[in-house]
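Lab channel / #folding
Pinned by the channel admin:
"Please post every new chain as: sequence first, then the structure tokens as a reply. Keep commentary short and put observations after the output so the thread stays searchable."

First post following the new format, from NK:
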Amino acid sequence: MIDTLQDFNRRVDEIEIYFNFLEDIVNKTPKLFYPDTKEYKPIAQEMTKILKANGFLLLYNLVESSFKKAIEEIYVELDNKNVTYEDIREELKKVVLKNFKDCNTDKLLLSKVTNISIDIVSKCFDSEKIISGNLDARKIKDFAKNYGFSYETNARITKNGSELETVKIKRNDLAHGIFSFCDCGKDYTIEDLLKIKQEVISYLREILQNIERYINTESYRKSNET
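Reply from TO:
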């Protein structure tokens, strides 16, 4: 999980830079300076709305990319440890069988299967098929139940990931052209956005830590079920 957590922290740093910039634009009303003409021009309110809406895209990118990498880490661990189908916990067996059912058999053969009991566990997994544009706390909870890792977080800080649904909906509205960026950003104050940002980051960080613990304690094994 080292690479996943490092990538998560790097993306969080990018988001903090962006939201600090956005907060300055909203609260300090700066002006753009054009050196060639020595002119100052105010930043249009419409631009502020667009920048607010863009914050939802950054947050959703963080959620999907980080969680996808974390799930991939589980399969890397299973592959590296040569964990067999017989070794894994019951919930995970169901996931593996579904992956196998949906697997492209030509791709499986090209991956040089040598031991079906081991290779069926990791080589049929395709993250692009299971996570695609609709990730929220409810879906993360479903993943947790199916894989056997904890979905518990400090609700006082994370609100149990409730704001992930807002981020997902706004991201999809923008991606599918349902609303313009201006329309998407106009109803949110900077205080609203900062609150959403903090809760999303806090929730996702705790979920990643739960998955790291799941991997480190080998809780994917039937013998380590709790």
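NK: The beta strands are 31-34, 39-42.
TO: also worth noting, The chain is about 70% helix and 5% strand.
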